[in-house]
Write a structure and sequence with these properties.
By secondary structure, the chain is α+β, with helices and mostly antiparallel strands. It is built from four helices and twelve strands. The strands form three sheets. The protein has a five-stranded antiparallel beta sheet, with no helix packed on it.
């Protein structure tokens, strides 16, 4: 199942039509299909044991997020059949297992203690290789290996969406230059009363939906909000010109 998208993004919280201040740059995948994978609430219970007589159950886990600045992937996974054994986690870029080689630095072991549900040593983190920190959109496939038979399970992005994570890390030289010189001043003029322009945050909005799910320069979240669509309470801030026409050009520089 293709990513609905990243992208692997900043959290978008709209209040009275204006965008609330962002507090981070972590991009999360598939938010458009039911919400991003979450580290859970403040519960203290460990994951439940496998039901008696249920046989082998595939590992359960999530890709919680991909930081758009550092390239750190975070998530969790456990095997209900063997809760005392850590699950091995594999990472593949721009293709599923069998179509591309396993990425450098992979696999890792999910043995980081978690304070949130599921509580226990089930967390993992992974630093994306430098070659994928090029500012372009990529797909990340994350698999948890069954501790009993080694079978791979593609980790979910949320309770409602499976498939690879679409993400970007960093900037393209042409895209950042164009944003700083052209897009940022226009956004500040048109939208500054509600929220201040920020390269990574604005790019994360522009990455929704990802190009792998049909995203383009004129149907992305940033463009559509500027045009007064998708319930944007502040209305059309672009008319038939900037900043939306500039966003369209910027999208091409970043993601084509």
């Amino acid at each position: 199942m293709q990513a609905k998208v990243i992208q692997l993004l900043a959290f978008l919280v709209f209040i009275s039509g204006c965008l609330a201040p962002e507090t981070g740059t972590t991009t999360k995948s598939n938010l458009t299909t039911g919400g991003g994978g979450s580290s859970g609430g403040s519960g203290s219970a460990p994951p439940p044991p496998a039901p008696a007589g249920s046989g082998n159950i595939a590992p359960e886990g999530r890709v919680n997020g991909i930081d758009a600045t550092s390239g750190i992937v975070s998530g969790w996974v456990y095997d209900q059949n063997t809760l005392n054994q850590s699950v091995t986690v594999e990472f593949y870029f721009d293709g599923p297992v069998g179509s591309v080689q396993m990425a450098a630095g992979s696999p890792v072991v999910a043995n980081v203690q978690r304070a949130f549900t599921p509580v226990g040593p089930y967390g993992y983190s992974y630093n994306i290789p430098q070659q994928y920190k090029d500012g372009k959109q990529h797909l990340l496939y994350v698999y948890g290996l069954d501790t009993t038979n080694g079978t791979r399970s593609l980790l979910k992005i949320s309770d409602f969406a499976s498939g690879p994570s679409s993400f970007f890390v960093g900037s393209t030289a042409a895209g950042m230059s164009y944003y700083n010189s052209t897009v940022q001043p226009s956004l500040a003029s048109a939208c500054g009363n509600c929220h201040g322009p920020n390269y990574i945050v604005d790019k994360a909005r522009m990455a929704l939906p990802s190009k792998f799910s049909g995203g383009s320069g004129t149907n992305n979240n940033l463009y559509r909000k500027g045009m007064g669509l998708d319930g944007h309470g502040a209305g059309n801030r672009c008319g038939s010109g900037p900043p939306c026409t500039l966003i369209n050009t910027w999208w091409g520089l970043e993601f084509n």
